[in-house]
Recover the amino acids of this structure.
């Protein structure tokens, strides 16, 4: 009870929350895209065969290896500044980071390309900020409510429902990205082997008011295609 609220990047929030806690507020979503960062190249498609691309995300690794098998995709860990320094030191030809993270750090100048979602489907909740509080703290929840952005909340709810139904997590090779057109909510998703040997895709849409059900339906489509085997093998590693 020493803290009343916690503010999270929804991309990094686990599927299940501790008992007694919830996230009643999703602020208006920021940029959900992945960012291509390079000192020498202007966009992902300009990279020559054998170019070294760094990312620690299994989702990004799977999609990069699947769509650009000629590239050398290498694991890259550390905070944003550490990763940028390794790029600047010449260890990598390019690295992939979340655009929203760079924008929040006022490093937008490092973004060479906002990668289209048709190439790099974003992580669940990417670009969104959520506020967590205790379920029994009615007063705090009421005070926070004006910060909630209903359309962003619906999008993130659908994405997280898909991830939960898959049994995935924030560090798994899973993507789910929801968009809204009028009263229709569309969710695109993927699950892939990190080595890029196979990537499964699905797309589902329905009424905005059924956001979580749409996410579950997306997960079911991916499970029918064999997503469970990929996720179980990744967990096993």
């Amino acid at each position: 009870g020493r803290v009343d609220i916690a503010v999270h990047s929804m991309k990094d929030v686990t599927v299940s929350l501790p008992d007694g806690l919830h996230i009643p507020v999703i602020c208006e979503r920021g940029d959900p895209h992945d960012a291509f960062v390079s000192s020498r190249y202007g966009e992902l498609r300009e990279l020559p065969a054998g170019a070294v691309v760094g990312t620690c995300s299994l989702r990004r690794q799977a999609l990069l290896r699947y769509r650009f098998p000629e590239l050398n995709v290498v694991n890259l860990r550390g905070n944003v500044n550490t990763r940028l320094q390794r790029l600047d030191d010449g260890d990598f030809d390019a690295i992939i980071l979340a655009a929203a993270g760079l924008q929040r750090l006022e490093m937008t100048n490092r973004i060479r390309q906002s990668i289209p979602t048709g190439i790099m489907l974003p992580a669940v909740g990417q670009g969104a900020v959520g506020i967590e509080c205790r379920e029994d703290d009615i007063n705090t929840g009421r005070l926070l409510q004006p910060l909630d952005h209903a359309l962003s909340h619906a999008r993130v709810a659908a994405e997280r429902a898909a991830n939960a139904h898959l049994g995935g997590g924030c560090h798994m090779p899973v993507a789910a990205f929801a968009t809204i057109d009028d009263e229709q909510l569309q969710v695109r998703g993927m699950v892939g082997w990190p080595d890029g040997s196979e990537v499964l895709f699905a797309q589902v849409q329905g009424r905005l008011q059924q956001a979580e059900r749409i996410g579950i339906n997306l997960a079911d489509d991916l499970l029918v295609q064999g997503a469970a085997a990929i996720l179980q093998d990744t967990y096993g590693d």
Observations:
- The helical segments are 58-67, 80-88, 99-104, 138-144, 150-166, 211-225, 227-236.
